[in-house]
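[job 0412] stage=complex_fold ligand=manganese (II) ion status=START
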Amino acid sequence: MSEAHQTLREVLLDPEKNPGLDRDLIFLLEDIATACRIISHLVRNGPFAGNLGEAGSVNVQGESQKELDVIANDVFVKHCSNCSAVAALVSEEVDEVYWLKDDPDSGDYLVYFDPLDGSSNLELNMSVGSIFSITRLNGPIDAGDDRSVLRPGAEQVCAGNSVYGPSTSLVLTAGHGVDGFTHQRGTGEFRLTSPSMKIPVETAEFAINASRYKLWDAPIRRYFDECLQGVDGPRGKSFNTRWIASMVAEVHRILTRGGVFMYPGDAGNRADGGKLRLMYEANPMALVVEQAGGRASTGTERILEIQPTSHHQRVPVILGSKSEVEILGRYHCEAD
Ligand code: AHG
Ligand code: MN
Ligand code: MN
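[job 0412] stage=complex_fold status=DONE, emitting structure tokens
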């Protein structure tokens, strides 16, 4: 079989592609892939199960939960708990850290996830996805001490996401590039369909929720205004815009054809630190993007270097094609 159709397990066991992955991590990644397969099935059959709507509850972020947010969280928790080397879970949908072991060992894993990203799109039949991030304990910790999960994104050993679109995809990095898999209906396998994904350095496409224009800081307005001026403006080229309101789907587009995605800090979200969550949204997407040759920044610092202070912390996010993220970084410096 050609390399383009290797199964997820074959890729995880391939020492050239993924040197040094231990068995526990491979089992964990396979369990996460299973969780994504189940969630994909639920998303596709949602209307018949009557579970696309509001759950009537709010999560720790104060956001209303969909029934499927809650169900997808349960699926992730169940499958990540299969692996005896997982010490704790951090979910967007659960306030507290979920400790699985009373006595975590060095080498055990911590798993962070957003079980359903972009869930406001669910009843619209538009793409949603799941995001996950894994770090490894490199020494003894106290179980139950939630500060133990506060690790910078640079410590991630693995990260990725699924997208439940016209097909179900799974994107994965273990620190040696990014591979894209597609769920093959019939066999139920995730197969390698986009090996070594690379984000084009140059782009003329950007994604931002422009309804927040009046709330933005000067560097973001400057970038946006200049892009809109097209060939006659300082950028000298025409730009295209996109906004799906589902970061996983935006990142998937950027991995495929380049672009930049922004959810900056602004006057409306600054008190909260930003909109997107550091540990299970920004960090895993930043690792995927950097491993594909892109950049991920808050505008003033590299996302992967942020030392978290709380496990539901929010951050400004600017990520995608290297050239555009660097220009946005320069605009932030010049504004200072
Ligand atoms: P979630 O569905 O996990 O709460 O995350 C939604 C996030 C992100 O995916 C998306 O880019 C952004 O929120 C959408 O924000 P707007 O509502 O401002 O469009
Ligand atoms: Mn999300
Ligand atoms: Mn979510």
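The mean pLDDT is 94.
[job 0412] exit 0
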